[in-house]
């Protein structure tokens, strides 16, 4: 298309437009909206995703502070709580505080691994803030690799596996199989209905206890609570209670106290559902015969079932199954060693001290998934959430010895928390010593 002479930049029309534009006030760059203005939003989104990956607030806060320094924003003030992240930006006209909610939806194992890889990439490449925010949103919205059928199969394997670890009896195995299918289907359907998910723990515990008391208990002469506990594995807040103990041990009083209250309340809801089921069905008679226990091999087979169950139910990344099995075997072996050295109540202390460096070492190998995936699975085997559930359920039903079970549970939680703090500190110290040992050699080679 031909350009009219008057529209030429050197023509009369172009000169007039330039003259009018010169009279307009020119926008001055705002320091609060420069290139690094998106860093607070990036840190907030990353922190919320890390919290949803079941990481302690102390770990998340340390990661975000290190990222802020790495992105040359050490002036940012970062506060992390279990359900919210506050980031205060002192630049601009007056300090501005951004709020980022967390705890909306727990991330699957593949999503948690993707977030941790994104954090490592940000440290290595200093990725742009907009790109990181988009990657976090993409990880959150990524569909699960496995459909509903494989998810229910995974939950069933989880139930059988934990049953073999907690209560390995011959007559209980078919019960674990049936309950795993039922509860796995309920959990799958409950995730699709927001209103149902609010009462899902109580309703599921009530339905399963009623089913066991009326139909299974007369045939299988076993403790009702020990039959029910493995099938409620996804509702048990053992990991939450352990993270709460870690936060309290690390001085994060508000975060630890709020998680502890939430975990105890979750156990109370499950115990109420069990109590309601027993009340409707009637108090079960005391077992006249002891069920036949399986051999010492049963827990090891149970760990294999748990690893495959986690891989399917939580949609773990590809080629991560051997590493999940490795983490579970190390956790269980360390717990057995702790049982021999310090007793059952403090065995989690030894287990946590050993499993954290072992997982960190494996995470350095080529092809290994993120350490968050392996540690999450290992913690589920360490935490005594099922024992706390059994203790509160026994207390609700008036059984003797319930109070001692509850005390042992919280004692084990504190022992595991101390072990996790010591294990993480040991891993940091060993890594720092190894880097310092290699540094002079590298400098000599450079000279």
Describe this structure in words.
- With 447 residues, the protein is mainly α.
- The chain is built from 17 helices and three strands.
- Strands 1-2-3 form a three-stranded antiparallel sheet.
- The longest helix has 45 residues, at 402-446.
List the topology elements.
Layout: H1 12-23, H2 39-52, H3 57-70, E1 77-81, E2 84-89, E3 96-101, H4 109-125, H5 129-141, H6 148-166, H7 172-190, H8 194-216, H9 224-228, H10 238-249, H11 253-281, H12 298-313, H13 321-342, H14 347-363, H15 371-382, H16 385-396, H17 402-446
Antiparallel strand pairs: 1-2, 2-3
Helix pairs in contact: 2-3, 2-4, 2-5, 4-5, 4-15, 6-7, 6-12, 7-8, 8-11, 10-11, 10-17, 11-16, 12-13, 13-14, 13-15, 14-15, 14-17, 16-17
Key features of this structure:
single chain; 447 residues; mainly alpha; three-stranded antiparallel β-sheet; 17 helices; 67% helix; 4% strand; disordered C terminus
Give a brief outline of the structure.
By secondary structure, the chain is mainly alpha-helical. It has helices at 12-23, 39-52, 57-70, 109-125, 129-141, 148-166, 172-190, 194-216, 224-228, 238-249, 253-281, 298-313, 321-342, 347-363, 371-382, 385-396, 402-446, and strands at residues 77-81, 84-89, 96-101. Strand 1 (77-81) and strand 2 (84-89) form a beta hairpin.
Weakly predicted, low-confidence segments: 1-7, 22-35, 391-398, 442-447
Strand order of the largest sheet: 1-2-3
Tell me the β content. Answer: under 5%
Specify the helix fraction band.
55-70%
- What integer value in Å does the Rg equal? 27 Å
Number of strands: 3
Order of helices and strands: HHHEEEHHHHHHHHHHHHHH
Distance between the termini: 66 Å
| Number of separate helices | 17
Q: Any idea what the shape is? A: globular
Strand-pairing-aware structural class: mainly alpha
Largest sheet: 3 strands, antiparallel
